[in-house]
Every structure is written in C-alpha cells, then in structure tokens.
C-alpha cells in the first residue's frame, strides 16, 4: 500500500493556487480567514508556516492592512467616484407644477365687446366663461375646466379709462377653479383693456 499522502508531499500550511484551501498535513481544509481587526491567523511568533502564501483579504490586500472603507472613509476603492444621487420624485413633481403655474399666468385671450355693449354689461360669469375658453381643447394636468363660487375682487366697470400704455383691470373675480388633474383650487379671472382698444381675459391660480 502506498504511504504517499493525498497532498502529494505538500508542506503543512501550503495554500492552494486560488488561496482558498490549506494543507494541514492530512487534508485540504478551508484557508483560515482573517479575524476582525486584521490580526495574524498564525499568532506563534507572528509567522506563517513555511511555504504558505500571504493570506488575502477583500480587494487583494494582505492581512493586517486597513480595509478601503477605513482608509478612504467612503467604502469605495481608490479612483472610483461615489455615484451622485438624483432628485427625489417629489422634487421633480414640484418643479413640474411650478413650471406649469408660471405658464398659467400668461394665458390670455382677446375678447371684443358686441355693438352697443359696454364694460358695465360684463359679469364675473362672463369673464370666467371667456377664461374657460382658453383651455377648452387642452388636456394638461392644470388646464382650467370650470369656475364656481365667483366673487368680485376688483371692479372698475363704471369708471374705467384705458391707461396711457399697457393694460388696466376692468373687472377681476375670485372663485374656485376645477383643474384637469389637480382638482379644486382657488382661481382669479381678470378682464383687462389696453391702450390699443382691445380687451383681454386671463386667469391665474391663487393661494
């Protein structure tokens, strides 16, 4: 019977080529892992058995060396940039709503008085109806679909005179707006007249 051991004459402590197994003189056993704190797995004199290769840790470092997490403080190997985080979803939604709101306050429509009609004949309901025509064919989340509970906010119908330049408020009314996807929120509808003789209607979401 052969007396040659299965290790093929390997010295005690010899590691396998991949560093995962160690010859204990009788069998190949899993290589001893480095204890927490980087202590030497062969404490006698601080030496490894003859022929053993330096024990390897994560990222190919030898035992006793600090982890990259400790050395660099970020858990990333040298030269690797920590990925930047994007904006949270709520911030993206808020930015979108703010951009849409900025667009709302410049939505205007030109209106004209019928023959024999004057500003005194206009009511809040008339101004709201003109404002709704702005979004009649739109499907945006903040498209205005209805206005209720109207009350006068500013009334210059009886004594309005056009400004020397730009536009002046003839009638403005506050109410409850029904927005396409936002639901109900306060709205201000405004009838204005300019120095060029044209009338304008606009609306804006209010607090």
Automatic annotation (TrEMBL):
According to the record, the residues making up region (Disordered) are 1-77
- Top-level taxon: Bacteria
Record field: compositional bias (Low complexity): 35-71
Which chain regions cross the lipid bilayer? 93-115
List the protein's name: DUF2510 domain-containing protein
Q: Keyword Membrane, does the record have it?
A: yes
- Keywords, ordered alphabetically: Membrane, Transmembrane, Transmembrane helix
**Record SUPFAM superfamilies:** beta-sandwich domain of Sec23/24
Composition bias type Gly residues, residue spans: 1-11
């Amino acid at each position: 019977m052969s007396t040659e051991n299965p290790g093929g004459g390997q010295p005690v402590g010899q590691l396998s080529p991949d560093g995962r197994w160690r010859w204990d003189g009788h069998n190949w056993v899993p290589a001893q892992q480095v204890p927490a704190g980087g202590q030497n797995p062969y404490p006698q004199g601080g030496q490894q058995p003859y022929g053993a290769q330096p024990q390897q840790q994560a990222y190919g470092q030898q035992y006793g060396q600090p982890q990259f997490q400790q050395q660099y403080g970020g858990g990333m190997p040298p030269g690797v940039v920590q990925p930047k985080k994007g904006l949270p979803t709520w911030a993206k939604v808020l930015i979108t709503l703010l951009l849409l709101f900025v667009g709302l306050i410049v939505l205007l429509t030109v209106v004209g008085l019928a023959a024999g009609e004057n500003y005194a004949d206009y009511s809040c309901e008339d101004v709201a109806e003109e404002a709704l025509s702005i979004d009649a064919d739109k499907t945006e989340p903040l498209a205005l679909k209805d206005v209720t509970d109207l009350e006068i906010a500013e009334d210059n119908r009886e004594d309005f005179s056009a400004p020397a330049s730009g536009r002046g408020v003839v009638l403005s009314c506050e109410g409850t707006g029904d927005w396409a996807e936002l639901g109900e929120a306060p709205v201000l509808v405004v009838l204005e007249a300019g120095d060029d003789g044209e009338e304008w209607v606009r609306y804006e979401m209010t607090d």
